[in-house]
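Weekly modeling sync, notes
Attendees: S.R. (lead), two postdocs, one rotation student

Agenda item 3: backlog of single-chain predictions. S.R. asked that every request posted to the team notebook include the full sequence so nobody has to chase files. The rotation student volunteered to paste the first one in as an example of the format we agreed on. Action items at the bottom.

Example entry:
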Amino acid sequence: MTQSQKPRLFFDKGTVCIKNSGLVRIPQTKFDEHDNKTLRSFGLNYKEIIEYLQKSDLDYIDQVPNYPSSPFFQMSNLKLRDYQKNALDRWIESSMRGCVVLPTGAGKTVVGIKAIEKVNAATLIIVPTIDLMEQWTQNLSRYLNQNTNDEINATITTVGNLGGRKNNIQPITVATYDSAYLRAPYIGNQFKLVIFDEVHHLPAPGYRSIAEQLIAPYRLGLSATIQREDGLDDLIPRLVGGIVFQQGPKELSEQKHLAEFNVERRQVNLTYEEQIQYNNYHSQFTESLAKLGFRIPSMHNIRRLIMMSNRNKIAREGLLARNKANEIALNSESKVEELQKILQENRNAKTIIFTQNNKMVYYLSNKFLIPFITYKTGKDERHDVLERFKSGQYNAVVTSKVLDEGIDVPDAELGIIVSGTGSGRELIQRLGRILRPKQDGKKARLIEIVSKQTRETNTSAKRITALRKNTESSVSSNEVSNADK
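Predicted structure, as returned to the notebook:
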């Protein structure tokens, strides 16, 4: 076979193209709709295509990879704990593809950095936030350059960034999911290893195309909990690989790598006026569902209600009534009273208070004179609040969802959930914010305040069930009603 007759593989806009294939059937490929002489496939399938050609003893020309030359990555001063080494070994045994699931504070980033050292080639790390991009960049820079003792011959490794107005590609590059989504068609053949931090974000429509357009044969997913409420986590094995290692907080706390913990639920009654209002709004909601032919208020039916609400008056009124009922249950006066009691009982405990929405954040901040952090809080102000919290100048911080993931939060010993969703992932992430080992050996505590005789009790039960499955923890039920005080 002459050189011009050999199948030629090249990269084009996130895909692997094959010219001169002689119409050979190659798995995971199909003919280009504009060129019936060219086979095309997702970059994701590059490794499988090459393996097929090699096993079939077919001669070919491979012009797909465009890996930049990179220095030798060695991080000898970075030591792994036993479970971190086990996680890395399992990933290596799985052909360096798959996901590692560890609690917040257990050192997932360290596993990722050691994976880079093992592959020792161009690597793309993809993260959900600018804060995480900066944290990864700082950690990588520190470990990559820690062995440069020879000042004359030292090579300083620069870590590239894509995101936050930065557009600097290096052999090791950290990008946000948003930036990677935009750039994947053009840089998809430049990295041999890709690490997806908070990998549960990846299956979302749009983001999943990042994994599909990258040719990287080696892939690592990191997360505290990989499950999604929409079930799209079923896509992760195809995009990254399945779970190769998973360990929950209970076992790690028993090994003293994380603090021991317990979760407590305190139930409170709505005020008389709140209960009347809640019942009225909830009845309007269920009546609307019945009129539309929906038998039960399941998440599936609520999604249908949302989709119908822009063109159907009954659906719109039902959705509005549901939202008002939820607002009463999530933000009741009784919850505020119970929160005040908890804060008084734990005056000296470093505390993070979580709420479902920013309106409640601002209310609690004003009422109790507690600093707040929301998505609107500027970077410098947020850094100042967290530094003062770390030093002990502030003993408590109130926030909504912004501290759930993607921001390095100083150690705390008490978490209070005033309101939240039924997501098990959200609860696990919030628990992770208080799990760093305590110097005095104290247990970490997570208290959730739940409104009785509302659907919030079902929401709480749902997330506690998810917590049990994901953490193998002993969740206590110390339920206190304000009617019993």
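Discussion: group reviewed the output briefly. The chain has a mean pLDDT of 86.
Action items: rotation student to repeat for the remaining queue; S.R. to check formatting next week.
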